[in-house]
Design a protein that fits this description.
Elements lengths: L6 E7 L1 E7 L10 H16 L3 E7 L4 E3 L4 H4 L4 H6 L6 H6 L5 E4 L3 E2 L2 H6 L14 H9 L1 H10 L5 H6 L10 H16 L3 H13 L5 H15 L3 H11 L10
Helix pairs in contact: 6-7, 10-11
The structure holds acetoacetyl-coenzyme A.
Organism: Xylaria hypoxylon
Protein name: Enoyl-CoA hydratase
Keywords: Lyase
């Protein structure tokens, strides 16, 4: 595996790639070089044949304490605007076709939230990595408005209640165990289907219902062009376990 300065990569289970944010001295504050490394690792897992699903996690104490305030402090408008500060963060969500599970423990603030979708605005900044748009779609306008305007922190249990987090766990160990099991379940399916499923769910964020349903049907039709569709349906009829080719 390649060695990075701010992240660690591993393959904890067959079909599962994991990126662990590893900048403990700054509670995983998301400096630009960290984002560059994260993008690079995600891109590699995205194209790796032996990876179907990706876990992104931090430490027990901090998922990520947000964008790097010390890096941002001297930035001027023209620096930020002309160099498209933070735009590379979008690669994370738009370039990766395989599902990403965010395993969040401890602080997940500001941009750290935007990375995991767990927000807190600081007193002088507004969300910059898509939080105002994604959070509003995820939990509705009034709750998003309250959280973004007050910068109020909230618990994982709240995040689960609002539908922002899929699941919460009682401890860090249970979290890592749970996310790995979920990743294994996903990695047990055909990669073609997993990627198609993620694509259609994400499309629902951009398309109206009628277009979205049509889009889903087109992707559904395209699955019939895969070997795995034949393999899976034949295995079902024969009451056997499917041996996916991921083709
Ligand atoms: N950027 C840069 N450095 C950070 C950081 C950040 N976001 N968060 C923590 N650190 C650094 C601290 O400066 C400190 O470094 P030193 O040891 O060199 O002083 C180290 O990490 C440990 O932090 P603390 O001593 O503060 O640890 P704590 O346990 O007392 O507090 C905390 C933890 C509550 C998370 C606190 O560090 C904090 O409030 N951090 C800032 C959180 C924040 O406001 N995040 C939003 C950033 S803005 C953003 O993300 C904008 C966007 O939308 C893109």
């Amino acid at each position: 595996a390649r060695s990075y300065e701010y992240i660690l990569t591993s393959k904890p289970k067959p079909g599962v790639g994991q990126v662990t944010l590893n900048r403990p001295k700054a509670l995983n504050a998301l400096c630009t070089p960290l984002i560059v490394e994260l993008n690079q690792a995600l891109r590699e897992f995205n194209s790796a044949d032996d990876v179907s699903v990706i876990i992104v996690t931090g430490s027990e104490k901090a998922f990520a304490a947000g964008a790097d305030i010390k890096e941002m402090a001297p930035l001027t408008f023209s620096d930020a605007y002309t160099k498209s500060f933070i735009e590379s963060w979008s690669d994370l969500t738009t370039q990766v076709k395989k599902p990403i599970l965010a395993a969040v423990s401890g602080h997940a603030l500001g941009g750290g939230c935007e990375l995991a979708m767990i927000p807190r605005s600081s007193s002088v900044l507004i969300p910059g990595a898509g939080g105002s748009q994604r959070l509003t779609r995820a939990i509705g306008k009034s709750k998003a408005m309250e959280l973004i305007l007050t910068g109020k922190s909230f618990s994982g249990a709240d995040a689960e209640k609002w539908g922002l987090a899929a699941k919460t766990f009682p401890s860090y160990e249970a979290l890592m165990d749970g996310v790995t099991k979920t990743a294994e379940t996903i990695a047990g399916y055909s990669k073609v289907a997993i990627i198609g499923a993620k694509e259609v769910v994400n499309k629902s964020q951009d398309l109206g219902l009628r277009d979205g349903v049509e889009y889903e049907r087109r992707v559904f039709h395209s699955i019939f062009g895969s070997q795995d569709q034949k393999i899976g349906m034949k295995a079902f009829a024969e009451k056997k376990k499917a041996e996916w080719t991921h083709q």
